[in-house]
Amino acid sequence: MNNPSNFSWPDRIGAAAVYLVPLMEGLVFGTYLFNQFPILQVLFVPLIPLIQIYTTIPFAGLIFFFVLFFAVVRNDSLSRFVRFNGMQAVLLSIILSISSLLLSLFGSGLQSGAPLLLETLVNTLFLGVVAAVGFSLVQCLRGEYPELPGISDAANSQVF
């Protein structure tokens, strides 16, 4: 969309930082993989202070969601690059929230009837979030718009 040299480093870092919100929400889906492969937890050690804040504050996910939406996405004083990435992070969070709701509604039935299916769904959600966030972080730090299929079009239509 834009030449990578057009974005300042504060914009690049700010655009990358917004993806911490969906990453924090997505970590809960990693329990099966973390139990099977404990070495994977090492990748998330730098996030321990943020994880502690996220888990100790009641409704932290909801608070961070609204802060991200109102303070970043709807803040016209920020660059479009930061707001676009904020909107993508909001959309990823919404997808994770809906997935979490559906798993809580149908998860007990899947756990008793098809535990392997439940584990596969949860692992897929976790790996998908980690891949989307990782890709987006790299693209933001490079100063390029991350194009996530389906999500980027929706984010683009919401950010002017």
Automatic annotation (TrEMBL):
Recorded topology in the membrane: Multi-pass membrane protein
Domain of life where this protein originates: Bacteria
Residue ranges crossing the lipid bilayer per the database entry: 12-33, 53-73, 89-110, 116-138
InterPro entries tied to this protein: Tic20 (IPR005691)
Places the protein is found: Membrane
Keyword list, A-Z: Membrane, Transmembrane, Transmembrane helix
UniProt xrefs under Pfam families: TIC20 (PF16166)
Family assignment from sequence similarity: Belongs to the Tic20 family.
Name by which UniProt lists this protein: Chloroplast import component protein (Tic20)
Species in which this protein is naturally found: Phormidium yuhuli AB48
